[in-house]
Amino acid sequence: MGVTVHLVDGTFELFRCFHGAPRAEHSGREVGAARAFLSTMVKLLQVEGATHVAVAFDSVVAPPPVKRPAAADLLAAQAPLAAQAARALGLAVWPSGRYQADELLATGAARYSAEPDVERVVICSTDNDFNQCVRGDRVVVLDRIRGVVTTEAAVHERFGVAPGLLPDLHALVGDCSDGLPGVPGWGIRSAGRVLAAYGSIEAIPLDGRWEVAVRGAERLAAALEERLLETLLCRDLARLRTDLPLRHSIDDLQWRGARRPLMTGLSIDLGDAVALDRVTRWFGE
Hints:
By secondary structure, the chain is α/β, with parallel strands linked by helices. It has 2 domains: 3-156 and 255-282, Rossmann fold, CATH 3.40.50; 161-238, Orthogonal Bundle (DNA polymerase, domain 1). The protein is built from 13 helices and 8 strands. A 6-stranded mixed sheet has the order 5-4-1-6-7-8, sandwiched between helices. A two-stranded antiparallel ribbon has the order 2-3. Strand 2 and strand 3 (29-30) form a beta hairpin. Helix 1 (10-20) packs across helix 2, helix 7 (166-173) crosses helix 8 (188-198) and helix 7 crosses helix 10. The longest helix has 15 residues, at 32-46. It is elongated. The relative contact order is 0.15.
């Protein structure tokens, strides 16, 4: 049986921990989300059985100390603690630098799914952008909150197109979360039918004489022609890069146990001695 690789959106995990876990303060700083992040990574290993793991984080600038920091600042200040927790558990950590965490995860999914020893790559996130990375049952997206796995069949059922065409579809219909305005009049149903027939935005005839029956085809074609270059730019911006310089091999992602010195330091920084007790039997070095 082949290897299953779990690629974790660490920024999202910390975000949901911040909004789902109780607040806690230690040594004058908020640590509740970081404590919860450690717990959810322990669950990934202990309950969900992950064996090969990488955790990607977006670059976050910690805020300067203020008397009453905003929620966003309290969250950002815990990002280094979350990365510290991942390292202490012995997980591979991918800081994003001038890239984005989702691009690191997309690169990892493309690279490791091509490895002959890898049976499946699981992207742990609720970000719909990762649906474009899905390939059959080999690369899937896991919503750990709801336990929902998105396969290629699920993507096609929902959007009417293959995962690789999702950037084209979102460029046509718009995506508020990514700041994509879309083309006036285009909806998911019309865009899905037209893209399924022609395979890309560039291949769509701008005269509206389409092979598929779509209401208002000439009007939609005229709107696309008016915004064609803008729409193509939005499509290219919506595509996740898969060529970032990751150096971790499959063996580098294999979990070999928590790291005693790092976990000891983490428990002090979090003010959470129980965290150390939970992973004592897992120390690998």
